[in-house]
Amino acid sequence: MDILIQIITFFVMFLGLWIMLNHFQTIRGWTFYEVLFLYNLNILSHGISGMFFMSPMRQLEAMVQNGEFDGILTRPINPLPLLIFKQFQHAYIGHVLLGIGSLILCINKLNLELSGLNIVMLILVLIGATLIQSAIMIMTGCVSFWFVKATSLSNTIIYDLRRFLNYPLSIYNKFIQFLLTFVIPYGFINFYPSLLFLNKEGEVLFTASFQYGTLIVGLLLYMLSITIWSVAVNKYQSTGS
Question: Model-level pTM?
Fold first, then answer.
């Protein structure tokens, strides 16, 4: 049922995007399939990370409040992988399948060259994008250790800010561009790598080197999220909760 809902949501988004671009033709020089390419990098990486991290991090607030997390800490293994395997979300498989299928469609419609190097680059971008999505889920989940109600913050960062990724970052004002590049680096999930794949040289923001930064940003952000997780769990244990 969850997978069906995701499929319906995807096609509603697809239809809305098609209607908009059928009327305006382009969004600041970005065609329908170029914008869809952006959307696919976002939905595919979000689907992969969501299978492992979305449910554990969203449920963490309730687990801390009702004491269930205390039971997790009594196990002789790291609590993070235990939560992941305990609450794996198969529903996000729908995101992954839709993302893959639609990405293949975009590659075909845009006549993108599938050389060995481009395939490797695309895989590395998807790994980096997935790490960014995962890291942000982990860090928003960690807020539950310090604040009683963390769901609203999680929804704002994971859902509300992610909506900006549905369209090119270059159409937004400088504040949004800065926010989604240097503060919450969502731009590295799809916008910056898309400049490379789609040869959008005129759309460069800040520096052209950001086109190659997705994997590096993903690795650094994920390591930071694991550090924050470790600090949060240790502090939680030290309180005697």
Answer: 0.86
